[in-house]
Amino acid sequence: MPLRSSGSARRAFPVTAGTLIVLTALALPLALPTAAAAATGNGQEPAHPEQDWMGSTIAAHEGGNRAGGPETDDHETKASTSIASVNGVDVSSHNGNVGWPALRQSGVRFAYVKATEGTTYKNPYFTQQYRGSYDAGIIHGAYHFALPDHSSGASQAKYFAQQGGAWSKDGKTLPGALDMEYNPYGATCYGKSQAEMIDWIADFVETYRAETKRDAILYTSTDWWKQCTGNSEEFGKTNPLWVPRYGSSVGELPAGWDFHTIWQYTSSGQTVGDRNHFNGSFSRLQALANG
Predict the structure, then answer these.
(1) Residue 181 catalytic?
(2) What would you measure as the largest C-alpha separation in the chain, in angstroms?
(3) pTM of the shown model
(4) N or C: which end of the chain has fewer CB within 10 A?
(5) At CA 221, angle to CA 251 and CA 139, rounded to 5?
(6) CA separation for the pair 34, 13 (Å, rounded)
């Protein structure tokens, strides 16, 4: 097929076989988007995914005792003695290689590991953290840091499931978790209306269920949920709630949930900062893993 050009261009640069090859090569980057750009939907990749972990934006927006101190220490004592709960941690690439046997010895019984962000990033420490927790006898799960302005919920759910977020009925694997929190790159609600955000989350959780046969756990704060979904009640009956609050109690829950499943109560624990309580006995944690 002859190369199409303007009349002036034809007069200035006669098209030869050699010219055709050069022009074609120059045109390819414009005509064919990169695989990464196609995956994100708008050509963006997360600028600092290693800085984005479960709760990394919460304290800056909502306050709370992330840095440790008497409030955290007092709460940890109360929480471990007043209700049935199981100790857990969540980790990401900023934790590097994790010493899982020491955590297991300290009483940690479950762990969530960041697997992915958007549709281009996978935690480079994922294998050590995910497999290492399993090998240490800790019930483990994976989580996805959502970027709703980068691509659809369905595409991010599929990427997550394919890159470590799948579920196995082995008694030691928890369903994947969706991390919905303040945008670390810009507008709090990722430029979406409340209705659009609800649709995005629904797209993710429905696709994740189709991929894994499990309902994803939703990690979100009550304040973010109110602001970005209008305090939607849509997911309370299907998706277990993981709520962050760095204070003396779990506080008000988002609409639709009568109780929380996991509470992230501090980021100042020993060995690994982010600490969580599962709201129930160890047998109930096993039941969640078994599906």
Answers:
(1) yes
(2) 86
(3) 0.79
(4) N
(5) 95
(6) 29
